[in-house]
Design brief:
single chain; Aspartate Aminotransferase, domain 2; about 45% helix; binds pyridoxal-5'-phosphate
């Protein structure tokens, strides 16, 4: 589509944009357990006004926009105080969790190279369940990721972390909580290890940073995960998640300036002038910074506590409802408002159930290894809990009565993707989908049609027969049994 020769009227422009919204997930009705964090219409209006007030400014140059720099500083300070940061805790705002994590990896790689001898090829140790943005960071910054397994509660195995420490280790990561199952890693044990070996410990609290403090305030048991734990050197937390700010807002907070310094990039020889940048982008939108400040001040501790209380109530009822369905299990014992569940009954396929729930208009993510339905629960879900549980009960019965469903729709695609042992095959299949989505037609493939992504599901079934899923399931069961048999 070319740029039109003649300008459209503002009405035409807006009606086109708004028309496309009918294709989007309906998060306002509370049926979206992912992607959008809402604290109601009045709060949204405040965020929009604050965003609008700083619509045009640029966070790239704090000398030019001192007012904006003040807002960023205060957002970092409010966050540091919430995480029990020591006096002297510092940090920056970023565009989101991924940028905060990229920066943590870049910072600690450069810190190790600056302060230690014989680092060689930098490595980082992270739980297998840590957010995938850390893997992206490792890829981008030339750091080798060393994954530590998690135990049956989905918390990282600290002994495995200990074994992975060597002279190349530039950082250790723990999550509070991790996204896939909502489990908090044993941060105190990781902190002790990190201190003993003098290695920085980054806590990824992107999803939990503005939720766990209020869960704790409400009197529930939350293991220590923040700067109260000796050894924690930095924390990332997303304002655009449970901070209920506008999209494009996260913080990375370090215990002191000495840990922040390696985050900065300074170039002195560029013909465009001496250039200093605190984070990854050049131009930094100011709107999300102002809206984040507005969110923290506009909700206050009282507002966050109230929202968390309602979200916890919704989470408790959802978890109780899931556990009441024979065959379904909640993974681990997540203390916050993020959890996942799946089926341990072969007659009740998790992804077929996910398809049926999605056909009822529910939107959520899907885990793999084990297959799961992932719910990020917010206050706005409280009114729809009963409806969700009614759909869940009915659809579980439907899936049991239709065993063929796991070989149809997107359940077949997800089922294959989760079970194919050759992950290179999966990678290529996903690449095919991406190439299609970002190709000249810009079309979003429908995963419920097996012939999408260059027909890889169909190709596999054509090559190996309709029983491919059963074969893979048997292979996975054998592999698991063999794994257990090993000492
Ligand atoms: C624990 C955790 N870390 C990092 C991220 C990445 O955040 P973003 O999507 O804002 O880049 C997420 C996103 O869900 C997350 O849950």
């Amino acid at each position: 589509m070319p740029i039109p020769e003649r300008a459209l009227s503002p009405d035409q422009v807006l009606s086109h944009i708004k028309g496309l919204k009918s294709q989007d997930a309906d998060w306002k009705a509370g049926r979206c357990f992912a992607l959008v964090y809402s604290a109601g219409e009045a709060h949204e209006a405040l965020l929009k006004d604050a965003h609008q007030a700083y619509f045009s400014e640029n966070g790239l140059n704090p000398m030019a926009f001192k007012g904006l720099k003040r807002l960023e500083h205060e957002v970092v300070q409010m966050s540091a105080a919430l995480f029990h940061g020591p006096e002297g805790a510092v940090g920056t705002m970023t565009s989101g969790g991924t940028e905060s994590l990229l920066l943590a990896v870049k910072t600690y790689r450069d810190r190790a190279l600056r302060t230690r001898h014989f680092v060689g090829q930098p490595e980082m140790i992270l739980p297998r369940t840590a957010h995938v943005a850390l893997e992206k960071a490792a890829h981008l910054f030339g750091v080798v990721p060393r994954f530590a397994p998690v135990d049956e509660t989905f918390q990282v195995d600290v002994k495995a972390v200990k074994k992975l420490i060597n002279r190349h280790t530039v950082m250790i990561v723990g999550s509070a909580p991790q996204y896939p199952h909502g489990a908090i890693d044993p941060i105190e044990a990781l902190g002790a290890l990190a201190q003993k070996h003098e290695i920085p410990l980054h806590v990824d609290a992107c999803v939990g940073g503005f939720m766990l403090p209020f869960v704790e305030r409400l009197g529930r048991k939350v293991p220590l995960w923040d700067f109260r734990v000796p050894g924690v050197t930095s924390i990332s937390a997303d304002l655009h998640k449970y901070g209920y700010a506008a999209k494009g807002a996260s913080v990375i907070v370090y215990k002191d300036l000495d840990h922040l310094r390696d985050q900065f990039f300074i170039a002195t020889e560029w013909p465009g002038g001496i250039y200093a940048s605190p984070s990854l982008p050049g131009t930094r939108p100011a709107g999300p910074i102002a809206a984040a400040w507005a969110a923290l001040q506009g909700l206050g501790i009282e507002g966050y506590t109230r929202l968390t209380q309602d979200a916890l109530l919704a989470r408790d009822r959802l978890i109780a409802g899931v556990k009441a369905v024979p065959g379904l299990v909640v993974f681990g014992d997540p203390p916050g408002t993020v959890f996942a569940f799946g089926s341990h009954d072969p007659a009740l396929d998790t992804f077929a159930l996910a398809d049926r729930l999605q056909a009822n208009g529910w939107h959520f993510d899907r885990d793999q290894g084990p297959d799961g339905i992932h719910l990020t629960v917010m206050a706005g879900h409280l009114p729809v809990v009963d409806e969700f549980l009614a759909d869940l009960g009915r659809e579980c019965e439907w899936v049991r009565a239709h065993p063929e469903a796991k070989r149809e729709g997107s359940a077949a695609t997800y089922g294959l993707m989760a079970k194919i042992p050759l992950r290179g095959v999966v990678k290529n299949a996903v690449l095919d989908v991406m190439l299609k989505m970002y190709g000249p037609s810009g079309e979003v493939p429908d995963l419920s049609q097996g012939n999408q992504g260059e027909g890889w599901v169909d190709k596999l079934t054509a090559k190996y027969g309709g029983d491919i899923l059963n074969v893979l399931e048997r292979a996975a069961a054998l592999k698991a049994a063999f794994g257990k048999a090993k000492p």
